[in-house]
């Protein structure tokens, strides 16, 4: 352990240093408070033993400056019988202990320094343990956040899953009803997806769904909620959005999908990958979440029955 001995009396400083060196400490010396502070700031001293009365900076002032720099450093004050009141002041200021000069026995120096060193070790161990616990707690919180996110995400597309969408839809409709707002729901699926899977295989079908999800998230607002409803079906919840604007969003989505160069699109019955879309708005198409979803679903199947690759909004 690194230790700093501070005293403007060279003889006393030397005696204390020799005793503590013999005890196994790595000892540095300083002849004044100013010099001690400079040495302390440039080193890693866990323990400082300083005289309380010195020319220039006093031991109490040095104690205060050391504690400001590193509160974990243990400081022992050396004082005379005539200055015991100052020693008590030093203890209140954060000193660990004090030694009275002249020393009754050199063993007292070793005993006090040993106790202070043990305190410094315990403080360092506690701080290290606290840092480890803090780090472990941060890792646990991050793991919990990741697990929570995984619980609401679709494993293939990374969009929100069916359960999270249902909860969010119910909340958004309730909020819109409470504050007299509007919201809209876009429900769509991939046209002739079974044909695509039969032609190219399910891995390519999964790749198509992932690409479609990426296209969807890249062209929606941060407040919108995109989810995989199931299979090749997707939903997009648009808060505070009227049906007319939602129809424009849906048409833009349909157009982007039709124009996107999905692999194998030329083998589809329409010569490209396309989607059919139903758009429902609250409150005109449903007074609650279930009614709104049912309406959007019916409009989606109307789009399919009317030839696919189209948007139907009632």
UniProtKB/TrEMBL annotation:
Lineage of source species: Bacteria, Pseudomonadati, Thermodesulfobacteriota, Desulfuromonadia, Geobacterales
Modified residues (4-aspartylphosphate): 51
GO cellular component annotations of the record: plasma membrane
EC code(s) of this entry: 2.7.7.65
GO molecular function, one term: diguanylate cyclase activity
Protein name (database record): diguanylate cyclase
Response regulatory domain span: 2-116
InterPro entries: CheY-like_superfamily, Diguanylate_Cyclase, GGDEF_dom, Nucleotide_cyclase, Rev_trsase/Diguanyl_cyclase, Sig_transdc_resp-reg_receiver
Major enzyme class: transferase
GO terms, biological process: cell adhesion involved in single-species biofilm formation; negative regulation of bacterial-type flagellum-dependent cell motility; phosphorelay signal transduction system
Database matches in NCBIfam families: GGDEF (TIGR00254)
Record keywords, A-Z: Coiled coil, Phosphoprotein, Transcription, Transcription regulation, Two-component regulatory system
Matches recorded under CDD domains: GGDEF
Organism: Geomonas terrae
Residue stretches in coiled coil: 119-153
């Amino acid at each position: 352990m690194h230790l700093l001995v501070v005293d403007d009396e060279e003889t006393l400083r030397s005696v204390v240093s020799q005793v503590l060196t013999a005890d196994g400490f790595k000892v540095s010396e300083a002849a004044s408070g100013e010099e001690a502070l400079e040495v302390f700031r440039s080193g890693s001293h866990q323990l400082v033993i300083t005289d309380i009365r010195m020319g220039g900076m006093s031991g109490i002032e040095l104690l205060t400056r050391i504690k400001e720099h590193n509160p974990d450093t243990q400081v022992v004050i050396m004082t005379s019988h005539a200055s015991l009141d100052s020693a008590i002041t030093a203890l209140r200021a954060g000193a660990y202990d004090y030694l009275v000069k002249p020393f009754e026995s050199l063993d007292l120096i070793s005993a006090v320094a040993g106790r202070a060193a043990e305190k410094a070790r315990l403080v360092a161990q506690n701080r290290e343990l606290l840092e480890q616990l803090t780090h472990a707690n941060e890792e646990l919180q991050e793991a919990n956040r990741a697990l929570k996110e995984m619980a609401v995400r679709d494993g293939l597309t990374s969009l929100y899953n069916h359960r999270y969408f249902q909860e969010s839809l119910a909340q958004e409709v309730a909020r819109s009803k409470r504050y007299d707002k509007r919201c809209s729901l876009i429900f769509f699926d991939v046209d002739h997806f079974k044909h695509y899977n039969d032609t190219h295989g399910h891995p390519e079908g999964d790749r198509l769904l992932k690409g479609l999800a990426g296209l969807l998230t890249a062209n929606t607002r941060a407040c919108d909620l995109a989810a995989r409803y199931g299979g090749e079906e997707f939903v997009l919840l648009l808060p505070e959005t009227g049906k007319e604007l939602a129809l424009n969003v849906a048409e833009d989505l349909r157009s982007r999908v039709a124009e996107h160069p999905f692999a194998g699109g030329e083998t589809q019955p329409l010569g490209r990958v396309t989607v059919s879309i139903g758009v429902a708005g609250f409150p005109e198409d449903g007074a609650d979440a279930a009614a709104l979803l049912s309406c959007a679903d019916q409009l989606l199947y109307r789009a399919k029955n009317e030839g696919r690759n189209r948007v139907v909004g009632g």
